[in-house]
Amino acid sequence: MNGDYRQEIPRYLFGISALSLAGYSLLTHVHEPVIFFASLFFLVICTTDTLHSRIPNLATFTLVLVGFGYQIQAGGLLGGAMALLGLLLGLALLLTPYLLGGMGAGDVKALAALGALLGPGDIFQVFLFSGLIGGGMALVHLALGKDLKSRLRSWLTTGWLFFTTHHIPSKAADVADTRMKYPYGAAIAFGFFAFISWGGMF
Questions:
Q1: How confident is the prediction for the chain on average, in pLDDT?
Q2: Which pLDDT value is given to residue 9?
């Protein structure tokens, strides 16, 4: 079976699963604004990320506005500060994976937008769940993709260059072409639903 075709299997399986969770959550949490708006957000971004490998800026910007509006309405200026801290933390948490080429800018902005809605404490918990789940998803994508050994070597090389030089030199350009990318919006969605279902890790 062709490697490109095989890699589409987990892509759509994870995407459809995340969409199903978002749809179910949307219907069952109508009276819980945070979960409702987050579910609506995931319904949109998991669709576009699965089908087109992109997360619309309009969706993330809208959630940022909703997040700030909700936090300010609930807590005034302190709530606004929590929204800002959540946004900045969400942005910072995925910055290194983005610089390593493991995900797109849309994924980083999606977690940041969710951070504005949830605040810093909750977005950190979502990040932890997403990281664990996303790691498992990455292994599945990697195993079913083509040139497994080449991709592993390229990823390790890029990581070593980044952590030893704190930037990716121009000589790593060839590595960048083979860095693995997959829709991470579903991982963030799974992380969010795991958090609201099971609570924080600590």
A1: 85
A2: 81
